[in-house]
Amino acid sequence: MRIIYLLTFLYLISFTASSQHAFKKEEVLEDLHYLRKSLRDAHYNLYTYITEKAFNRNFEEIKSSISKDSLSMLEITSLFQAVISEANNGHSEIPFPSAVYADYAYSGGTLFPLEIAFEDGKALIRKNWSNNDSLEIGSEIISINKLTINEVLQKIYPLVSAERRYFKLAKIELFSFPRLYWQAFGEQENFEIEIKKDNKNQKFQIKSIPLIEDFEMKRNEIFSEKREFRFFNQSAYIRPGNFSGDEQKFRSFIDSSFVEIIRRNPPNLIIDLRNNLGGDDSFSDYLVSYIADQPFKWNSEFTLRTSSILKAHVRENYDITNPFWQSVLMHENGSIYAFEFDKYNPQPIDKRYSGKVYVLVNRQSHSQSAVTAAQIQDYKFATIVGEETGDFPSLYASQYNFKLPQTGIEVKIAKGYIVRVNGSKKAEGVIPDIYIKDHLLDEEDEILDGLLKHINIKD
C-alpha cells in the first residue's frame, strides 16, 4: 500500500537507472562530457541566458570537484543537474532522483517537517507536520541549522532548472522543499529553525518526520490532474487538467461540459489553468475552440533545431510519416528551421460559449498552460485572472529526452522556440488582467474566491 502514496509524485519525474548502483569516476566523467556535448549539439540555443565562457567555467568547477573513485546515483544526479541548470532553461533539465528517493523512503527515511511557499521574497510556513504547534502557518523562516534561508536556497538552486529566480522558487514549491532539502543536505534528524513572528525572531528545535507516514501520506501535490466541472451560482467552472494523457477522454470531458454550459447558458465561464503542468497543443486548442470567435493559432512563430540525438528519438518514438516529424528528419543536423502550424477553427456557433470568460493562472501554470493563457489573452478570448505565471509564454521548450550512456540518467532538453501569439519575446510570464495573489498551499482559494466576489460586485 505504501507505493500508492508515492505514485502521484513519481509519475511526474520518471525513474532513472538503478539507485543502488555505484559508478566509477571514469564512467561519471565520460557521461559528464557526453552531457556537455549533447547540450551543445542538440539544445536549441544553449547560451541564451548564459555566456559560453560562464557555462564552461561552471562545468570545469563541477568536473574538478569529482575526487572520489566511485559515486552514488544521488551524487551523480546532483552533479549533472548543476551542469544543465546553469543554462537557465526550465525545459532543459535532469529530473529529481526518484528511484533513490523511493529507496530512501522504503528504508525508513525521514524529512524536514515543514512545507514552504515563497511569497514576496519570504519563505513562509504553509504546512506544519512537526510536533511543535507553536510554528504557525504563515510564519517566515529566517534560517535552518544556522544557514540563512538564502544560503539554503543557494544549495538547492543548482538542482532546479528555470529561467529566473521566480520560476526556480515555483519549481521548488512544485517538487516540495522537504524533498529537495533532503537531496541537497542529506538525512538530518534534528533542525534548529529561526522564524519571524510579530516582528520578533524566535528559535525552535524540531525533529525530522517519517517520509512516508508523516509526509507523503499527509500532503497533496501542488499540480492537479483532476478534471472538474461545476457551477458557482451564475458562473460555470471548468478545470481541464493537464493537456496530456488520453486525448479522446479529454475531448469527451470538454464536449460534455460545454453541452451543459450551452444548455444552462450562464453569463460567466471560468477556466482554471492553475497548478497545470501543460502538455500538448492538440489538447489546449480543442479547449480554446469552444470560446474562440475566429480561427486561431497557439503561437506566432515556432522554430526547431534538429540534431542526431533528436532524429534518433523521433525514429524510436514517433510516426515519421507525420509532416512535423518528417521535417526533423529532412533537415541537416544543427540547422534551425520554422514549422508552420495551420490555424485551428472554432466550434460551430451553436456549440461554443459566447458569454464572459475568465481564465485563472498562477505561478504554477506551466509550459503549455502558460502558452494557452497567453494565446487566449492575445486573441482577447477571455480575461486572465490571478498572478504571473512562472513559465514564459515565449520560451525554449518542445521538450524531449534521451539517456546518458554510462549512468542511464535521463536528460530532458528543449528542441524548439515558441513565440506567443502577439509576437512579444519579453522575458516575463503571462501577466494577468486582474491580479489576485495566491497564498499557495494554504486552505483558502484566494484567486477563485476573489474572482467570484469581483463577478458578483460587477453583476
TrEMBL record:
Domain Tail specific protease: 236-435
Claim: Disulfide bond is one of the keywords in the record: no
InterPro entries given in the database record: ClpP/crotonase-like_dom_sf, Tail-specific_protease
UniProt-listed PANTHER family: CARBOXYL-TERMINAL-PROCESSING PEPTIDASE 3, CHLOROPLASTIC, TAIL-SPECIFIC PROTEASE
Matches recorded under Pfam families: Peptidase_S41
Name the UniProt record assigns to this protein: S41 family peptidase
Organism encoding this protein: Shivajiella indica
Keyword set, alphabetical order: Signal
Keyword Signal recorded: yes
Signal peptide: 1-22
